[in-house]
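To the wet lab folks,

You asked to see what we're planning to order before we commit. Fair enough. Below is the target structure as tokens, and below that is the sequence we designed to fit it. If anything looks off to you, flag it before the synthesis order goes out.
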């Protein structure tokens, strides 16, 4: 685990996880922005974005993002005008974040 993805192996898969709290009166607007960011992340514009999940509970949002490598994460953050506009709006307070790297679990050996 690291506090910055730059501290991890740049060629390995990277997971970014965090929790955010919407500023007062901004939860619905934040939810709409997340819906738009998720649509972009799930599109062909970001082929290195493997998973992008957001869960909402009132004003609290949990985010789980998985990227093929550091280059894919940088594409999502640094070359994404929608993301830059979202950050500039200051709709939330980041309460916790962490970055992880490594490989996925092996293929299951049991069928259900």
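Sequence we intend to order:
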């Amino acid at each position: 685990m690291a506090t910055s993805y730059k501290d991890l192996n740049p060629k390995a898969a990277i997971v970014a996880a965090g929790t955010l709290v919407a500023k007062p009166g901004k939860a619905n607007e934040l939810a709409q922005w997340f819906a738009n960011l998720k649509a972009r992340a799930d599109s062909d514009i970001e082929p290195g974005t493997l998973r992008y999940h957001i869960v909402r509970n009132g004003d609290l949002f949990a985010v789980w993002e998985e990227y093929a490598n550091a280059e894919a994460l940088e594409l999502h953050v640094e070359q994404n005008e929608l993301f830059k506009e979202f950050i500039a709006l200051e709709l939330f307070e980041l309460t916790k974040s962490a970055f992880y790297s490594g490989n996925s679990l092996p293929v299951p050996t049991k069928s259900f």
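Structural context that might help your review: Residues 103 and 109 are 17 Å apart (CA to CA). The chain has a mean pLDDT of 93.

Thanks,
Computational group
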